[in-house]
């Protein structure tokens, strides 16, 4: 059997179109005509020997084969880009001050920072794991070079939206959703204010006319996980970093209100001339897109 050598340039176009939610946007970003991009995608289907796209309304969606190829394409591009960065900028030295929101910090730290240090052995990274509002404040004050946070709405610091993730009601694994409809106010486990997810949860309950009470409030995400696992009350989060003893609760069965999505946003210094910061931002952006794919994101929304 003759193996296929996929064209990395075409794979980059393929992945970029999915990330941006539009191949017209991908063509503009990559400096190509839409007809050139269409020709690339046709060649990719020929190389794959499978149909990669299907009609979805006025746009396109991935087939099962397309989703499989996308996962491999991201891995191939990641290795390619890591090699290119290592050869081009191994001599770069200096410090990058990075801020990560708790949910994504654990998922990104080992993977992205390991890759970054292998490519830039003379670099040093200072990491701050904190709440979104605190990270945005530190970026604005010039105390961090870049940060990944939940989008905090109109009052938050402007940034680059990377992906939008669905929010879920969370309870103990194996939790019977029918128990959520018991008598009395529904107990919730929430992070201390200010917290965008806390506001979303309580606003959703108020709009649905469901009585609730705060059974546990903490500044610590680990305390929130522990309280939810112990059955003190439900909380809301994305699937990122969700412990194995917790699971999403079916909102219909539990008679809970539907929840919106929430965006992960990258914030950077207004004037950032740190080359290492730019390189790390690229790695983080790619890693977030992969996390988003695994978490049923709404890319580019």
TrEMBL record:
Coiled coil: none
Domain HTH lysR-type positions: 6-63
InterPro entries assigned: LTTR, LysR_HTH_N, LysR_subst-bd, WH-like_DNA-bd_sf, WH_DNA-bd_sf
Keyword flag Transcription regulation: yes
Keywords annotated in UniProt: DNA-binding, Transcription, Transcription regulation
Domain of life: Bacteria
Keyword rRNA-binding: no
Family note: Belongs to the LysR transcriptional regulatory family.
Protein name: LysR family transcriptional regulator
Lineage: Bacteria, Pseudomonadati, Pseudomonadota, Betaproteobacteria, Burkholderiales
